Amino acid sequence: MAIEQGPPTADNPWPVALLGAKLRDWIDRLGTAWVEGEITQWNVAGGNVYGKLKDVEVDATVSFSIWSSVRSRVPADLKQGDRVVAAVKPNYWVKGGSLTMQVVEMKHVGLGDLLERLERLRRTLAAEGLFDPSRKKRLPFLPHRIGLITGKDSDAEKDVKRNAQLRWPQVEFRTVHTAVQGDRTVGEVTAAIL
After folding, report:
1. Structural domains in the chain?
2. Model confidence over 97-134: pLDDT tens digits?
3. Which residue, 85, 92, 103, is CA-closest to 32?
């Protein structure tokens, strides 16, 4: 029986395998891309590495695999928690219905890389005039409100508020509760600041 490959309808639906094959073919056309993230899982099995790479700014994660034939191009000291850039080739596995990034190359994001990117950002912001003295506001002698980003029901929150009240009874806080440990911390704290 030939599978009809026209647009699917309720009367002529695609089999799951056809949808999977179309997804795989489309994803295969994407090619290799460089991505940056934090390793949140790192498991070695049979000479291959399987893990997860998380975006450092938002809550987004992808699975990756490093085949044993590629491990020589990957630093031996990589581990969970490391920030990396990786050349990945997206692969869609039809039988299991899963998307994985096959790593071609991976390396640490070093301090020099971070400093270079910060300097580029500083130049961009300066070109937009964001550092112009006319845009700056004078800070008040005493703040009207203090921003506090902390874990919910934390001892740190209680200590900060208690000590501030002792020194300045009129102090007002705007408290934002976030994760302070784990994978969600960076994204939640960043969002709370913004």
Report:
1. 30-110 (2.40.50.140), 140-194 (no CATH)
2. 889 999 999 988 866 666 777 888 889 999 999 889 88
3. 103
